[in-house]
Design a protein that fits this description.
The chain is of the alpha/beta class. It has 8 helices and 7 strands; from the N terminus they run βαβαααβααβαβββα.
Length: 192
């Protein structure tokens, strides 16, 4: 499958430790010829961390895609009625975003983008990054795995000796996972 011309949303939430890999994949995705619109959660758009400043990440997204990032709920809402995307990727998808998505809470630009996009019967791909995937968020992962149009980037434990409940998406599978989700199928295996 070619991604050239596909309208893809790439939504960033606050798991800043994964941004380097996420931005590497964003670069690879732009190289496919896909038309990419980035969306930033409130945290992603405003918090400076030891991994970089919010301003730096916003500028990097703009530079890579040629489009200003969506940073407000009001900017994200038209994604649904105007059917602006073929697929939405939430990368990284924090445990907080995962839990809110599983429970129908829409209080950030990323969650509004997801809600708006789902109304069009189109796929969402989640690249989880959460310290409680095998704990409190396991139920939310299960709910979303059984939800229509929700797909997962393969994921694995990232530091089982130090963080036994933590799991993170295997970013290197982003493009094949997008291709599969556009065909309405889950790439396998999900857990690596």
């Amino acid at each position: 499958m070619t991604l050239k011309g596909k309208q893809i949303g790439m939504a960033f939430t606050g798991s800043f430790c994964t941004y380097q890999k996420a931005f590497e994949q964003l670069q690879k995705l732009t190289n496919t010829g896909a038309v990419i619109q980035t969306i930033f959660s409130d945290s992603a758009a405003t918090i400076d961390s030891r991994f970089g400043t919010a301003e730096t990440f916003l500028k990097q997204a703009d530079t890579l895609t040629g489009k200003a990032p969506i940073c407000t709920i009001a900017e994200a809402e038209p994604i649904g009625p105007k059917s602006l995307l073929d697929l939405l990727v939430i990368c990284p998808c924090t445990g907080n975003t995962l839990a809110k998505l599983a429970n129908g809470i829409t209080d950030t630009p990323v969650l509004m983008a997801a809600k708006a996009h789902l109304r069009n019967d189109k796929p969402i791909l989640l690249a989880i990054s959460t310290n409680d995937a095998l704990g409190m968020n396991m139920k939310n992962i299960g709910l979303l795995m059984n939800s229509k149009n929700i797909y997962f980037l393969p994921f694995c434990q990232d530091a089982p000796d130090k963080k036994p409940n933590s799991m993170v998406a295997c970013m290197e599978f982003l493009i094949p996972s997008i291709e599969a989700a556009l065909e309405k199928r889950q790439i396998q295996p999900v857990i690596r």
